[in-house]
Design goal:
By secondary structure, the chain is mainly α. The protein has one domain. It contains eleven helices and two strands. Helix 6 crosses helix 11 and helix 8 packs across helix 10. It is globular and about 55 Å long.
């Protein structure tokens, strides 16, 4: 797997195939012309994502006893979801899945990484259980310790009940120095949920990407390194690699999903059984 990692990083660094339909610095632009709905999303997210809330949702969902369905059933659900937190895309999330995967495919990445691009947002099926979007999408962050100012719209945390707990507002909070992200409770959403669903089927690099791809404060801004262990340090490059495809592949252009379907049907069947527990 180390050889694969080196191959992928070299390939990406020399690639010019990722092209955006707008300048790169206009993606994830939360400073200029941010839609009101995005600001409202993060206001609710930052108010309600407490440690107690996260622990309750883990207890509710991580036993995977809600239903049994296949990847393609989940993809059908994504076809009806538009991410309220995303300032860069107003198309259904199923289109984003194809866009991300196709850019990875064009650059010749391994099949497991292309598959990761295709399914990385499937955890957003949490909508069918009645969860609000602020409990599903958006950037993720640790709870139970001080909030980094690198988190998008961090000023909204002023209304979070955990701000009243002095322990939670220290650097390490309930954690220890370099304890590893596996021991850290992240804000609840689609990342952690899908990680639990697919953890028995994919390589560890794929699972790490799925679990932390929305943790932009870490892999984009360099925050929270004091909570990461050596394993996290060795894996963060995968998040940075994947993020470029996840982010810069977004486009309002149409994509012929019917033409692509045979390839992705075969790819999904290579890694997954017909149904999984959700």
């Amino acid at each position: 797997m180390k050889t694969t990692a080196i191959y992928c990083l070299i390939l990406f660094s020399s690639s010019s195939i990722i092209t955006a339909n707008k300048p790169f610095d206009e993606f994830r632009d939360y400073e200029n012309n941010t839609p009101a709905k995005v600001k409202e999303f993060y206001r609710l997210n930052h108010i309600h994502q407490t440690l107690d809330f996260v622990l309750a949702k883990k207890k509710e969902y991580c036993n995977l006893n809600k239903l049994c369905m296949g990847i393609w059933q989940a993809m059908d659900i994504l076809d009806k979801i538009i991410d309220e937190s995303d300032p860069d895309l107003s198309l259904p999330q199923s289109i984003h899945a194809f866009q991300t995967a196709e850019k990875l495919r064009e650059d010749g990445h391994p099949r497991w990484l292309i598959l990761t691009g295709f399914i990385h947002d499937l955890g957003k099926v949490l909508t069918i259980f009645g969860e609000p979007q602020w409990a599903i999408v958006g950037d993720t962050f640790p709870v139970g310790c001080a909030y980094s100012d690198k988190i998008i719209f961090s000023h909204y945390f002023s209304q979070n009940p955990d701000m009243k707990n002095p322990l939670f507002q220290t650097q390490y909070g309930i954690y220890e120095s370099h304890c590893g992200l596996d021991n850290v409770h992240m804000s609840w959403g689609h990342d952690e949920y899908l990680y639990r669903v697919v953890k028995n089927y994919l390589p560890e690099e794929a699972l790490y990407i799925i679990r932390y791809h929305s943790f932009y404060a870490a892999h984009k801004e360099g925050a929270y390194t004091y909570l990461m262990d050596e394993y996290d340090a060795s894996m963060i490059k995968w998040l940075q690699l994947f993020s470029n495809y996840d982010l810069y592949s977004k486009s309002e252009d149409s994509i012929n999903t019917a033409q692509l379907m045979p390839y992705y049907k075969e790819l999904v069947s290579e890694f997954f059984p017909e149904t999984l527990q959700w």
